[in-house]
Amino acid sequence: MFCFQCEQTKLRKGCTTVGVCGKTAEVAEMQDLLCNLVKAVGLYGHNLKLAGGKVPFEIFDFTFSSLFRWSNTIFVFVKNTLTNVNFDPKRFVEYIKKACKYRNQLQLAYEAKCKEQNIPVKNFKHISEVSWSPNRNGEEQWTIEFLTEEGKKFGVLREMSDYGRDVHGVREMIVYGLKGMSTYARHARLLGEWDDSIGEDVFEILSFLIDGNKDQRHDLSTNLSWALKVGEINMRGMALLDKGHRKRFGVPSPAQVTTSPKPGKCILVTGHDMNDMEIILKEAEKRNVNVFTHGEMLPAHGYPNLRKYKSLAGHYGGAWQNQKYEFPGFPGPIVVTTNCIVEPMKSYKDRLFTLNETGWPGCKHIDLEKDLRKLMEAANNSAGFTEKDVVSNARTLKVGFGHEAILANAGKILESVENGNLKRVFVIGGCDGSENKRSYFSTLAKCTPGDSIILTMGCAKYRFNHMDLGELGDTGIPRLLDLGQCNDSYGAVVVAQALASALKTDVNSLPLSLAVSWFEQKAVAVFLTLLHLGIQNIRLGPVLPAFVTPTIQKILEDKFKLMSVDVKHPIDDLKEMMSG
Ligand code: FSO
Ligand code: SF4
User: Which of 121, 173, 273, 437 allows an S-S link to 114, with CB 3.0 to 4.6 Å?
Assistant: First the structure.
């Protein structure tokens, strides 16, 4: 195996025998096979479109689900290391089978369309992703052992000698960016938002990866252009998700969220899926059960159509990596929607329910349409909070500063810029992780001066969202503005673009500094979006991705003024940021 897709990869080079996350070689090989077969699905889908045909929605959906499901967006601690969840190899077999089925289906559709249109059929059989089949000795082999062996032929390093480390690094960055954007696109789809053009553009990129003109495929700058295209598609995906959230749950508005327990039976919900949250809130209200948010679910309190439920009682805990410290003390069932998950401890494993792409062996995986009652019964059978648990001086967290709420104050913000009361806007956000060096981001936030504001999003904010950073002068605008989940980095872009337009300048001329905490593929997608928008001076950390070679780094430094955060010297970074 070889995997270097996340921030914690071994020695910042790559995991080779087993993942730092605990991912086994078996799973890694099968992931590689699936990911490459999906490229062939994209190839035929793209060519079908060029021939005048249409890809069925279910194949787009499958593609996004495959890229999402097996990406390492979902992590767990195993003996103090991190790993993916849903490592059930049997499920990979099913996915690989489906990938072959859809690839072959699109091939037939493409060839039929060519015939109908009287255009020559291109032969792709020389491409290994296209010609791969499970047939051996006249029989289809669908065993885990066979697929694991076959996966080795599609390993990440396969292309390294052919393309060289630099081009290879960018090609991998394209794949990880696609995985991240697939996650957002799928969340949007579950909220009823979908746009075929996103699927078509993803298919075009997948097609380029295995069938592009050979010179272009080996050309660094061509690959970089496709990487920026991934960023552009991701911007559209995040916009769809933003729209989906607002259509269903209303425009977010500022709210104060208590972190004190409330007496009564209770359920804790963590993760990103607001759709699931609403279903749970509705039922819990009928049954007098209190629902608490955890991790990336905190922004639920900002949406009027979720806040209206009396069952939404407060927030409990912090970022995903603290689950094993926080969950034991929660006296009710815990629901994990698509989210990073930590290996459940015995003390709460039987109270943990997983949904959607999340899962853990031995934990109950439920479907809210069928199993809502089970969840409510689990709440009623648990101890719940009592009066004794109430914390009278508990912290409150301020949420709900979506782009609309911030831009409602655009006049005051612009006035503050003009009269010198607002010297800098910081964007400090992204993903959190367990490493101590991520305290860089909390030190940075804490030390930002009073004449600055911070826009934050994602679970990285738990490093500092409890801090009282006061207000900006006498504007009444809090200095710390929480836009929501990691996908709400879309909102930060909207705010920056609106401010730039009002000041008749470009985003890079704004007094704006970005410090982005990255962990895995969603952050790669967001990062590529920022580059696509031409945003410069991004500080990325705690370390740069392993697939960013010195050559790629130099290009990104020259073209985008990309910087690595100086984990040991956040104050030096801050001084540099303040000086523009
Ligand atoms: Fe955090 Fe996890 Fe939202 Fe992430 S919960 S780390 S990348 O999945 O998505 O910010
Ligand atoms: Fe290593 Fe990260 Fe890949 Fe896991 S996901 S194998 S930790 S690079």
Answer: 121
CA 517 to ligand 1 center in whole angstroms: 11
Please classify residue 256 by burial: count the beta carbons closer than 10 Å to its beta carbon, then call 0-12 exposed, 13-18 middle and 19+ buried: exposed
Cα of 223 vs centre of ligand 1, distance in Å, is 27
Categorize the per-residue pLDDT at 150 as very low, low, confident or very high, splitting at 50, 70 and 90.
Answer: very high
CATH number at residue 375: 3.40.50.2030
Distance from the CA of 72 to the center of ligand 1, in angstroms? 10
Residue finishing a domain among 337, 360, 389: 389
Q: Ligand 1 center to residue 193 CA distance, Å?
A: 21
- The whole-number pLDDT of residue 356 equals 80
Q: Which domain holds residue 340?
A: 255-389
Q: pLDDT value at position 170?
A: 98
Number of domains making up the chain: 3
| Number of the ligand 2 atom closest to the C-alpha atom of 1 | 6
- Tell whether 246 is covered by a domain: no
Q: Is 486 in the pocket of ligand 1 (CB under 6 A)?
A: yes
Q: Is residue 249 part of a domain?
A: no
- Do 94 and 129 have their domain in common? yes
- What pLDDT does 85 receive? 39
| Ligand lying closest to the C-alpha of residue 13 | 2
Task: Please give, one letter per residue, the 3-state secondary structure of 367-436.
Answer: CHHHHHHHHHHHHHHCCCECHHHCCCCCCEEEECCCHHHHHCCHHHHHHHHHCCCCCEEEEEEECCCCCH
